[in-house]
Amino acid sequence: MMENLGFDPDPWQRSVLRSTADRLLLLCCRQSGKSTTTAVLALNTALFHAGSLILLFSPSLRQSGELFRKVVGFYSDLGKPIPPQRETALSLSLSNGSRVVSLPASPDTIRGYSAVDLLVIDEAAMVPDEMFVAVTPMLAVSRGRLVCLSTPLGKRGFFFESWNDPDVDWDRVKVTAEDCPRIAPEFLEEQKKSLGERWFRQEYLCSFEETIDQIFSTESVLAAFDSHEDPLF
């Protein structure tokens, strides 16, 4: 299918598309191709797994719409091999019973869905924790897949915690700009000078940096709750 799309995946993209893991965390730099990869994954699920429900979540309606348009674009590139029953700006229903639905990350608008086969959370580091709590029960009965992809955004939130918690069973994939052959070294040098070290590390080296308004480091805050220290009283 990828050949028909004119899509020559990087090694990490090929690995993700071949993965059978139920839980995927993609920690990726800007412009690495993470949205393209998940769009192909979503379309593959819809075409080859009849009756599937695929939900695409992003922090805003505009962002979720962009991811959905990539799915529809690939679907058109393939010549719409399975005829559509209904196609709107934010949803696609196929004649094999599969549906792809794009939604903004609002707990108030997503609770009506169930039996989800593939749940994609785009820019997951920007998604509120309450949204993550609201969507995960959708996978309880279907035992569907959960794919969270994002560039890091501070040391807080479910995406940061999931990436760093060894007790949570995730298949983790990290892709920095150095792993992406389409990003020229000259461009990275230019970005490092214009963004500064902190922002460059976050945007292109997948580093979880302290938030700008944080007075104490995350490590200092956690150390304050170290149960190994003897109490003062």
Rg over CA atoms: 19 Å
Q: What composes the largest sheet?
A: 8 strands, mixed
Uncertain runs with pLDDT below 50, 5 residues or more?
A: 213-233
Please give the number of β-strands: 8
Count of structural domains: 1
Which structural class should the secondary elements be placed in?
alpha/beta
Nearest-integer average pLDDT: 86
Shape annotation? globular
What's the end-to-end separation, in Å? 66 Å
Task: Write up this protein.
- The chain is α/β, with parallel strands linked by helices.
- It has a single domain, classed as Rossmann fold (3-Layer(aba) Sandwich), CATH 3.40.50.300.
- Helices cover 38% and strands 18% of the residues.
- The protein contains 10 helices and 8 strands.
- The chain has an 8-stranded mixed sheet with strand order 3-4-5-2-6-7-1-8, sandwiched between helices.
- Strand 6 (118-122), helix 6 and strand 7 form a beta-alpha-beta unit.
- Residues 213-233 have low confidence and may be disordered.
Name some characteristics of this structure.
single chain, 233 residues, alpha/beta, Rossmann fold, eight-stranded mixed beta sheet, globular
